[in-house]
Write a structure and sequence with these properties.
Elements (H helix, E strand, L loop, with lengths): L6 E7 L6 H8 L1 H6 L2 E7 L8 H6 L3 E4 L5 H14 L4 E4 L5 H10 L5 E5 L7 H16 L3 E4 L2 H11 L4 E2 L8 H5 L1 H12 L6 E6 L8 H13 L4 E6 L5 H10 L6 E5 L4 H6 L3 E4 L8 H9 L3 E3 L16 E2 L5 H12 L5 H15 L2 H13 L6
Parallel strand pairs: 1-2, 1-4, 2-3, 4-5, 5-6, 6-7, 8-9, 8-11, 9-10, 11-12, 12-13
Helix pairs in contact: 4-5, 5-6, 13-15
Length: about 375
């Protein structure tokens, strides 16, 4: 009996970290395997990422072509793909994207997919360069894919780049929502959070774009009002120490729980009262999708990548971060139970289930891979 021919796909990432693309790949590992996809993750930055072991546990092979400087990286990248042939190479990085396409074509790779994950806002000469590079990459055969409405619109407007759209996805587990009371009690006990505290949660890397300091400021105001509020801060990043220092300077103490990266994010979302995302911009955030499904009550900034996701007052709340008092007023209403949050949670969860199903959207991506290959 002949062996089943598998499609070999390489995903080119930066480091293998706890971010959106890696999370989707991790969750869909069994879907890819069941559909005959043999997946390799190729890190293009030196050093081991914090999500690598989890990815190996999920069945992925991982190689690293990171180098010291551009020239060293180009050599390593070329040699790797000259020695290792794939049916599809899927690039997820903006950094050096065009040059990666050039090198892939020189190594004989024709089926190249580039995913745009963010609403990039380059201007001036850099924007013109990226417009030209996107056009030339397409001329070399690269297929461009966007992860959602906002990213598609941004690529079209900013870079005159038409993309095929397949929405991001998340793995959903209705059982966690059904058992939320027991999970909530368990997780709060583990984290030292009182059962009657109002818990604000954020999930994501620590950076200026994520704007976690804004939440710290809100917690300070609410605490001075005598509100029993805790900020559950999930994630790490370049600004983590600065955020911890700011929390200390504000005198928040145990009112902020810094958890670092976690593998139980859905359970933490279920255990919290509201999810906040005051980011300056997003692409199509996996963290937001998970929050809308597992928590159901989200408050986001009126910013690109967020304002297209929320039907204000129906599937969540959207307030510009310039209106700080608006955030305070809303949070006070939520704490005092003056909003019909059950209807909002239900609408948000239904929205996610309909548009961001892992089974549906991962199958669409596999179909997209098969275009112009022997597997079509």
């Amino acid at each position: 009996m002949s062996a089943i021919l598998k499609m070999k796909v390489a995903h080119v990432l930066n480091k293998i970290e706890f971010s959106g693309a890696e999370t989707m790949l991790y969750q869909a590992s069994k879907v890819f395997d069941a559909n005959g996809i043999q997946t390799t993750l190729v890190a293009s930055e030196p050093g081991e990422g914090r999500f690598e072991q989890s990815m190996r546990d999920a069945g992925y092979s991982i190689d690293n072509v990171g180098g010291e400087g551009k020239l060293d990286f180009f050599k390593r990248f070329y040699r790797y793909f000259k020695a290792n042939k794939f049916d599809v190479v899927h690039i997820h990085t903006e950094k050096l994207y065009f040059w990666k396409v050039m090198l892939l074509r020189l190594t004989g790779h024709k089926n190249i997919v580039r995913t745009f994950h963010n609403c990039w806002t380059f201007d001036g000469m850099l924007r013109n360069t990226r417009i030209a590079q996107r056009r030339m990459a397409k001329m070399l055969g690269a297929k461009h894919h966007a992860i959602g409405d906002a990213v598609s619109a941004n690529e079209r407007k900013m870079f005159r780049n038409e993309c095929y759209q397949i929405n991001n996805w998340i793995m959903t587990d209705a059982g966690l929502i059904e058992n939320k009371d027991a999970i909530r009690a368990k997780k709060r006990t583990e984290l030292g959070i009182s059962a009657d505290d109002f818990v604000i949660i954020s999930v994501g890397g620590c950076s200026k774009v994520k704007n976690h300091g804004f939440i710290l400021d809100l917690v300070e105001v609410l605490s001075k009002q005598g509100r029993k509020v805790t900020y559950l801060h999930v994630g790490t990043g370049v600004d983590e120490e600065a955020e911890k220092a700011r929390s200390k300077d504000l005198g928040l103490g145990a009112k902020v729980v810094f958890t670092g990266n976690r593998n139980d994010v859905p359970e933490l979302l279920v255990s919290s009262d509201v999810y906040m995302m005051p980011s300056l911009f997003e692409g199509l955030s996996i963290a937001l999708l998970e929050a809308m499904y597992y928590n159901g009550l989200v408050v986001v900034n009126d910013a690109p990548g967020l304002n297209n996701m929320i039907d204000n007052g129906r599937t969540g709340f959207m307030i510009n971060i310039e209106n700080k008092q608006g955030y305070i007023d809303l949070l006070v209403k939520l704490i005092e139970g003056k909003e019909n949050v059950s209807a909002i949670r239900s609408a948000a969860q239904n929205f996610i289930g309909e548009k961001f199903s892992m089974e549906k959207n991962a199958a669409e991506l596999i179909k997209y891979y098969k275009l112009n290959t022997k597997f079509n």
